[in-house]
Amino acid sequence: MRYIGAALQEARDCSYNVHLHGGKIIMSATVGFDHVHLVAKEPQATAKWYVEKLGGEITRNLEVKGAPQVYVSFGGFTVIVRGERPAESASDKPGLQWGVDHFGLSVKGDFDGFCTGLREKGVTFSMPPTDFNPTTRIAFINAPDGVSVELLDRKDQR
């Protein structure tokens, strides 16, 4: 019992939620979304695209492990854009691959007007604004370096 008490105290000191269930220690934590990390041929130009086209804000611009790394903030969501690091060899995507396919950004307000504004800025759409279901309108845009971004208007979350 002394071991369990010490383990409980250690876990509490690490800011976990700790429960004792059937003589076993159960630790729980919460997980939240932090960022999307992109590798770009031209990180500065790519970060600028996210600022100029989607309204992000560059909040950090530094070098990490020999490559530029730019943080673009969208409120509580960050896109980290980094360049190729020494000894790395990135290549173009040949098309659809297993793994992450895209990331989605919610659009509050005039969704179709926002999409029209993106077209006027030269952004290309792989899927124009479309009613996906009765409560959600979506579109997909092509970002630099083969990245696909989904735009969502969730009418049930307004």
End-to-end separation in angstroms reads 51 Å
Count of alpha and pi helical runs: 3
Mean pLDDT: 86
Low-confidence parts, pLDDT < 50 over ≥5 residues? 1-15
Q: Cα-atom Rg, whole angstroms? A: 21 Å
Q: CATH superfamily of the largest domain, please?
A: 2,3-Dihydroxybiphenyl 1,2-Dioxygenase, domain 1
How are the strands of the biggest sheet laid out side by side? 3-6-5-4
Sketch the topology as an H/E string, one letter per element. Answer: HEEEHEEEEHEEE
Strand fraction: 35-45%
- Binned, the helix content reads 10-25%
Classification by helices and strands: alpha+beta
Question: What is the CATH topology of the largest domain?
Answer: 2,3-Dihydroxybiphenyl 1,2-Dioxygenase, domain 1
The number of domains is: 3
Shape: globular
> Mind summarizing the main beta sheet?
4 strands, mixed
- Provide the CATH top-level class of the largest domain: Alpha Beta
The CATH architecture name of the largest domain reads: Roll
Count of DSSP E strands?
A: 10
Oligomer: single chain
